[in-house]
Design goal:
alpha+beta, 110 residues, 3-stranded antiparallel β-sheet, Arc Repressor Mutant, subunit A, 5 helices
Amino acid sequence: MIPNMPRAATTSDAFNAIAEPRRREILSLLAFEERSVGDLGDRLGWAQPSVSKHLRVLSDVGLVRARRDGKRVLYRTNAEAIKPLHDWTSTFQQLWRQQLSRVKARAEAK
């Protein structure tokens, strides 16, 4: 049996930060366009404090960046910080391709 290992704080590790599905939703919305807290809240149907809380975590681990535009603050993804996540998950794309090739080969053999 593996002893309980302490988890890294969500604010110190990108993988822990994206373990929360709502943060992944935010990242998806920010993938191609800057958005304000209000816009994110409207699109997700969440209250502003909830959006701000999750943006804070994503900002603390460097996955999103903010910039001022007059009175508004606009958030966007930080591609450099997301790249390690992408690189890690890409290894599993190869696994799935192999699995699908095996299924295809079995189906065609019948």
